[in-house]
Design brief:
Structural class: alpha+beta
Radius of gyration: 20 Å
Number of domains: 2
Number of helices: 8
CATH topology of the largest domain: Transferase(Phosphotransferase), domain 1
Shape: elongated
Largest sheet: 6 strands, antiparallel
Strand content: 15-25%
CATH superfamily of the largest domain: Transferase(Phosphotransferase) domain 1
Helix content: 25-40%
């Protein structure tokens, strides 16, 4: 293999043994940084998720190490997946960072919403879902961190009922300030609320109490009303939403 060759995709097939430790089950997703696979761990038969980082996106293993440290820092957060290990493997002669975490059983929020009647949630479950997301994101912000790119396709619903059991995936690290990114998390959480209620098509029909939260998706107004995710959480706990019943 040429020294200038670098792996831009792995394309690992089901049944392939990785690092004499994992058996590949399926590809879960691929993105800018790498690929995520569902695997079964040898000897224990435990199902895990592994993220393999493209070497050209992870020089000096800085990206993968930073991601692992962030997950470890947030290990007490109920909404963040459990981080297990960071190691370096050889694939096709190249050193590849492999980050192992729990495999999250569940359904992407976007898929879940699309299966609902009219492809949206009713007001009562939507408020409860929003509150669950806010509690989870608040636990991240209280550790001085942020998610960085919240949307309906990186939130996994594990259980749906009077309470939601949620996990978020794909935490990001951006070059700008953490405060800016925490602000962005607040805006994105409210955008998720808007989307699960039916988006633009349903917005004009919403009661004033919900429109007060959504603020017409105006970033400046959102951050005036909810300077932090904790402000949003307190508002949800105290709000009068009798007009929504």
């Amino acid at each position: 293999m040429s020294k200038n060759t670098t792996i831009s995709e792995f394309k690992l097939v089901p049944g392939k043994i990785l690092a004499n430790r994992f058996s590949i089950v399926e590809l879960l997703g691929a993105g800018y940084e790498g690929e995520v696979y569902k695997v079964v761990e040898s000897h224990t038969n435990k199902v895990r998720a592994v993220k393999l980082f493209y070497p050209h996106r992870n020089p000096g293993f800085k990206v993968s190490s930073r991601y692992a440290k962030k997950l470890d820092k947030l290990r007490s957060s109920p909404i963040v997946m459990d981080y297990l290990s960071h190691e370096v493997l050889r694939i096709r002669g190249e050193k590849i960072a492999c980050l192992t975490s729990e495999f999250i059983q569940g359904q992407l929020l976007g898929e879940f919403i699309n299966k609902q009647r009219s492809k949206r949630l009713g007001i009562f479950p939507a408020i409860h879902l929003l509150y669950s997301i806010v509690l989870g994101v608040e636990s991240i912000h209280l550790e001085g961190e942020y998610h960085g790119d919240l949307h309906v396709d990186n939130i996994i619903i594990k259980r749906f009922g009077l309470e939601f059991d949620l996990k978020i995936i794909d935490l990001h690290h951006w070059g700008d300030s953490k405060q800016d990114n925490r602000d962005e998390d607040v805006v994105k959480v409210i955008r998720i609320f808007y989307d699960i209620l039916g988006g633009q098509k349903q917005y004009r029909k919403l009661p004033p109490s919900l429109k007060f939260i959504i603020c017409g998706l105006k970033r400046t107004l959102i951050l005036q009303r909810f300077r932090t995710i904790s402000d949003l959480r307190i508002h949800l706990e105290l709000m009068d939403w009798s007009d929504a019943i």
